[in-house]
Amino acid sequence: MDYIQEIQNYINLEIEVLKRLDYKKISDALNVLTDALKNERVIYIFGNGGSAATASHYQNDFNKGISEYTEKKFRFYCLSDNVATITAIANDISYDEIYRQQLKGRLSKNDIVIAISGSGNSKNVINAVDYAKSVGTYVIGLTGYNGGILGKLADLHLHADINSMQITEDIHMILDHLMMSILYKTLCGKEHLKN
């Protein structure tokens, strides 16, 4: 079977979504992150499924990739990474509490929360964001579809304008590498883009 047309259709759709991204909001996110680095703020990041993997990837790219070359270090903490803690909370309390419970008593208003939910409606993500808002913590929300509840709650909403979980998750990962590459250049003096 020849899949070339289907491949082209997917790539073309992804390009359309990328062109609709709000560049000003991405720039704002970069400023929030560099301020967090400068002021040694903790950045809590989390999501479910593919978004959990994306959250873990952000932590890696900022805590190692960029921080390897900076005097001050990013302090990303991925709430999706500790399986023992997640399963204990899910089993003993509720799966809806796996992120809020990890933030309780630890989160300060000076920290940053990055919540990732393709639909914008994942209950455990929204519960954690509600808690963050009650503390006064700045929230960056990454969503797709219509943005859902997270899009309305976030102080800064990075939105992939598409009704596709696959392309939404692609865009969220592109945002990670885009921001990492820019900070790699501007903070570390290292160029990722070679001719």
Portion in strands: 5-15%
User: How would you classify the helix and strand content by structural class?
Assistant: alpha/beta
State the end-to-end CA separation. Answer: 35 Å
Q: Return Rg in Å.
A: 17 Å
Fraction of residues in H or I helices: 40-55%
Low-confidence parts lasting 5 or more residues at pLDDT below 50? none
Please count the helical segments: 8
Strand count, sense and barrel status of the largest sheet are: 5 strands, parallel
* Total number of strands: 5
Spell the H/E element sequence. HHEHEHHEHEHEH
CA-based shape: globular
Please state how the strands of the largest beta sheet are arranged side by side: 2-1-3-4-5
- Average pLDDT reading: 96
Q: Can you lay out the helices and strands and say which pair or pack?
A:
Layout: H1 4-19, H2 23-38, E1 42-46, H3 50-66, E2 75-78, H4 83-92, H5 100-103, E3 112-116, H6 123-135, E4 138-143, H7 148-153, E5 156-159, H8 165-186
Parallel strand pairs: 1-2, 1-3, 3-4, 4-5
Helix pairs in contact: 3-8
